[in-house]
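Bench log, entry 3. Co-assembly request; chain sequences pasted below exactly as received.
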Amino acid sequence: MTDAAAPTRETDPLGVSPVAAAMKASLHGDRIYHVLTTAFAAAVPLLLLLIAISIGLAAWPALSLAGLSFITASEWDVAAGQFGAAPAIYGTLVSSAIALVLATPLALGVSIFLSEIAPKWLRQPVGFLVDLLAAIPSVVYGLWGIFVLIPLMRDPVGPFLRETLGLAKTPMFSGPNYGYSMLAAGVILAIMILPFISAVTREVLLAVPRSQREAALALGATRWEMIRDAVLPFARSGIIGGIILGLGRALGETMAVTMLIGNRPEISASLFAPGYTMASLIANEFSEATSDMHLSALMAVGAVLFVVTLIVNAIARWLVWRVTKGAR
Amino acid sequence: MSASVARTDASSAPGVAAAVEARKFSFWYGEKQALFDIELSIPSNGITALIGPSGCGKSTFLRSVNRMNETLTDIRREGDMLLHGKDIYGSGVDVVDLRSRVGMVFQRSNPFPKSIYANTAYGPRINRGLRGRALDEVVEVSLRRAALWDEVKDRLGTNALGLSGGQQQRLCIARALANEPEVLLLDEPASALDPVATQRIEELLFELKSQLTIVIVTHNLQQAGRLSDRTAFFYLGRLVEVGPTDVMFTRPREERTEAYITGRFG
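Structure output for the full assembly:
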């Protein structure tokens, strides 16, 4: 750089060569760019912080009134000033867990099929159809659930699980089966998060280097052995990332769940029993929350949902970190 | 001797079953023909080097011997490829079994992101179902044969990606040897390595050649000269000439061979 500037300086009596001036200008541009990007980058966490603070402030009256019972008690009686959100917290976690249990193997299967096994001409169209599941609005899922899924849950899903599989005696599948249930919510969530998990998984599977596949094949691995031993381990952390993405969607999903879960704030071991989630609680009550305390209680539910999502994400990140560390 | 230089030297004489034998073998990637009527016989044991400029078909030929090319789509072949006299493209041939009998080492070392032990044990585990003590033994023998044992015996459980480039490549050779292959194919195994690591690989191959048929693709003519017993020169998808390495490098019959070997093109 100095070499390029030196000769021009000799011809320029003022010592400000065009090259140096240009360099200075670009340095100036660099600084502006630097400041701008830093500001944008800082804006995002700042926004998050502001939202968290405002929710926290709004939630404080209800939280200080209820104390720890807010997350442990099951009584939700606004008039009596009882705010126990445990059933909603339980419902959010359980419905999301059901969704993950159902969607993960399905998404893995779809992705493995599409990236490894399906003939080329089939990959694009089927992949597109799976992605299309993400384009259906939540309320449409809810509507479909009410008119198609709920009747199916009553018959044949309920009788199949109870009689055919003989699960009637287990607490998880006992009690009356109205259709509107934790299980219905979990199933609809599973369908809704399937495209997210599948899209990420497909991408990471395709990103597994050819050399890894060839290594396994050249040693006499069958296609399945290659997928199991070379492709999936290599893609492991990415797949877990996709599952986290799906989980994040499931925890916050509101409309379809509210339409199908039955909205009964009770903790029941049976998956056939109606339940409640934090998101559906807020959605159901915000329009009638006229008192300040009621509003504050709903804000507190929002805060808890926020924290739960944060904790789940932290655990998941830790999992990814551990898995990646183990693999590399 | 000089009369037997080209395609009809003693080793392809009838009665002596070659380890690998191509008969009018042609290969296409889509519309593009990569190999033209290759007639090549590779005798048992010893090292055969495949040389030639980039895109001459030598890697395609190598990858046809363990049917690795079949992982690509839109390919086509004609002619036969025999392994110890049996057509590997025959209807009854199990390609998985074939690949366990014909080992392959690639240009870039590609260990699995697993332990050194797990890498070496992979083949015998999936192909022969070996476990426990028997597997330990195969792992040790294979690592010894690949001249890696002394360097890694205290850290078999550590991740293979922690090894140096040369060690990783020798691990890949050990991994291939663990299958006890009849033929070992190497596709420019040292081209990404420094001279010291390259020399170790060459010494290792030299050790192995008494018990194993080795076919190596190389861009490095000195390597071919140093290492191989026989050399085959490919050019534009055709086999130009094949013969004992010392003859190929001193008195080649074909002008194109001489031009390539003396560095006038390629």
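Chain B has one domain: 2-112+181-261. The mean pLDDT of chain B is 88.
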